Amino acid sequence: MEKLPGFITHSEVLGIEGNTDVCFLHGGYAAPQIACTVETLHILGVKEVFLIGLCGGFAGHLSVGDIILPDKVWSEEGTSRHYLEDPGFAQVTPPFSFETLAAFFQRKGFRVFREPTVTTDAVYRQTYGKEQFWRDIGCAAVDMEASALINLCNLYGIRNAVALMVSDKHPLSENDPSWQWGNAKYGDMLIRYILDCIAFCTGKE
Prior knowledge:
Blueprint: E1 14-16, E2 19-24, H1 30-43, E3 48-57, E4 67-68, E5 72-76, E6 89-91, H2 98-107, E7 112-113, E8 117-120, H3 128-136, E9 141-143, H4 146-156, E10 159-169, E11 180-181, H5 186-202
């Protein structure tokens, strides 16, 4: 299969020569697109999904380039509410242990945190008050896809895991430095992160 069929996303499907059990694709931007992707993967018989993504960190201890492995993700996107009445925290059901994945990234030189995150589809409503609420319920960073992917995977019995690299740090108050994307080393860290994730998925670290 060269391209994934579906309603919104039609990503190229990439494989590794000699490994027919693993493929890679772009799942789409934000919850509606990732939901379309999971629906298609479910019909195609996929049994495990590993979301490799980025997030904005709003916890004081996080830095650009850190990796978060959430065991649960708070749902503030709208897509999950078409599948579940009250999504709340989406619980990751990984095909491998958190400890195995954390140890892998640590060997590669990353700082790794196992903390809840949140998914939103209203990026301009990430106010200081909203992010304080997210911290109060234990979340450390925000993305736009993870909770929808987890909820749909769990609904269809697909094992799932999530790794999110911090791409940007959010100011915690109006007195903090202004928001900016990444840092001087971000481009190199991103490439290393992607290549390391490919190595993990194919067993070629």
